[in-house]
Amino acid sequence: MMNETIDLRSDTVTWPTPAMRQAMAAAPVGDDVYGDDPTVNELEREAARLLGKEAALFAASGTMGNQLALMAQVGRGNEVILSDRCHIVFHEAGAAAILAGAQLRCQAVQHGQMSLDGIEQAIRKTPEDIHSPRTDLICLETADSDGVVLPLDYLRAVRAIADRYRIPIHLDGARLFNAAAALAVPVQEIAACADTIQICLSKGLCAPIGSLLAGPAETIALARRKRKILGGGMRQAGILAAAGLIALREMRLRLHEDHATARQMADLLAQRPDWFELVRQPEINMVFFRLTGYPVAETLLADRLAERKILINGPDEHVFRFVTHYWVTPDDVRTVMDQLEQLARET
Ligand SMILES: Cc1ncc(COP(=O)(O)O)c(C=O)c1O
C-alpha cells in the first residue's frame, strides 16, 4: 500500500493509479453540457460499445445512475420490483420515493435472488384498473453488496418473464465487471439480460468519481434531461472521464486478482476455525466471516486493528466484511493475518 495503511472497508476507498492521474492532467476537455467534451464523449461511446447498448451517460455516482434509470423509466406512483436488500432500497436514502416517486415492490431474496414465481406474481396484471399501480421496471443487482453474483441462467429467466409482460429491466452493475470475472463470461452476456445498466468506475476500478448509465438511445436521452434536473450536468468533466477510460480499458481486466486475494484471505481465516467462521466462500473481492473463539470482542476489533494501521468496518449482525482491491496485495493479506495473530496473543 502506498500509505502503509491496509484499508479493507470497501473497494470504494481505492484512489486513482499514477496512470489515471497522468491521463487526467492531459485530458482534452470541453463543456459537456453542450456535448463538447471529447473525453466524456469517448467514455460514453466506449461504455455503450462494451455493454452492447445504443448509448451511455456519464453520471456523478452509482446512486445517481440508478436514480436516473428510475426517473427515466418509472411513472410517478408506478412500481419497481426489486430485492429488499438491494442498494436502491437500503443505501440510497429513499431517493426512489423522493426523485422518481416510485413505489418499490420489495421481494425477499435467497442468496441474492428474488424467486422467479415471486417476480411474476408481483407484476401487476390489470394496468387498466384505476385502483392498480402499474409495474414499470424490474431491478436486479450483480454482484450485490453481499458479494453474491447472479448466474446467467437466473438473469435469462428473469429476462424471459420481463419480456412476457413487456417490462424493462434495470441492472445495478456497480460491480458488473466483478460479476463477469467471477462467471468468466464476456460482460455483454450479462448486459444483454438488462435494458439499462449502471456501472461504477469508482469502486475496484480505481477511478476517483463516476458511473455510467447505458441503455436504449431514447432512454438515455431522457436520462440526460433528468441528470440536468438533479444538477448533475458537469462541465469539463473530461478530467474525470479520462480516469474512467483507463478503468474501462485496463482496470476491469485485472479484477480476478482481487478475487484471488479475497480467496487467499478466506483460506487463511479458514485455517483458524477456533477463531473465525467463514460465512461462505468468496465469489468476488469480499470475504464474510464471524468471530468464533477469537479473544477480542467483535465491537472492539475495528479499533484494535486501526491502531495497527488496518482499517475495517464494524460487524453487521455479527458478520465482518473484508474487501480486497487494487491497493491490497497478497503481502498485505499476510500482514492482516499476522496482525490478527499478534493481537490475539497480546490480548
Ligand atoms: C451495488 C451498489 N449499487 C450502487 C452503489 C452506489 O454507488 P455510489 O456510492 O457511487 O453512489 C453502490 C455503492 O457501493 C453499490 O454497492
Write a structural description:
The protein has 347 residues and is of the alpha/beta class. It folds into 2 domains: 6-11 and 254-346, Aspartate Aminotransferase, domain 1, CATH 3.90.1150; 15-251, Type I PLP-dependent aspartate aminotransferase-like (Major domain) (Aspartate Aminotransferase, domain 2, 3-Layer(aba) Sandwich). The protein has helices at 18-26, 38-51, 62-73, 87-90, 95-100, 116-122, 152-164, 176-183, 187-191, 217-229, 238-249, 255-270, 298-307, 330-346; strands spanning 6-7, 55-59, 79-83, 103-107, 109-110, 113-114, 135-141, 169-173, 196-200, 211-215, 276-278, 286-291, 310-311, 320-323. A 7-stranded mixed β-sheet has the order 2-10-9-8-7-3-4, sandwiched between helices. A hairpin with a 7-residue loop joins strand 11 and strand 12 (286-291). Helix 3 packs across helix 10 and helix 12 packs parallel to helix 14. The structure holds pyridoxal-5'-phosphate. The site of pyridoxal-5'-phosphate has 14 residues, from helix 3.
Low-confidence stretches: none
How would you spell out the order of helices and strands?
A: EHHEHEHHEEEHEHEHHEEHHHEEHEEH
**Main sheet summary:** 7 strands, mixed
Number of discrete helical segments? 14
Q: CATH fold name of the largest domain, please?
A: Aspartate Aminotransferase, domain 2
For the CA atoms, what is the radius of gyration? 21 Å
Q: Mean pLDDT score, rounded?
A: 97
For the terminal residues, how far apart are their CA atoms? 27 Å
Query: Can you identify the CATH superfamily of the largest domain?
Result: Type I PLP-dependent aspartate aminotransferase-like (Major domain)
Count of DSSP E strands?
A: 14
List each distinct ligand once. pyridoxal-5'-phosphate
Helical/strand content category: alpha/beta
**Spatial strand sequence of the major β-sheet:** 2-10-9-8-7-3-4
CATH class of the largest domain: Alpha Beta
DSSP helix fraction? 40-55%
In the residues, how many domains can be counted? Answer: 2
Percent strand: 15-25%
CATH hierarchy: architecture of the largest domain: 3-Layer(aba) Sandwich
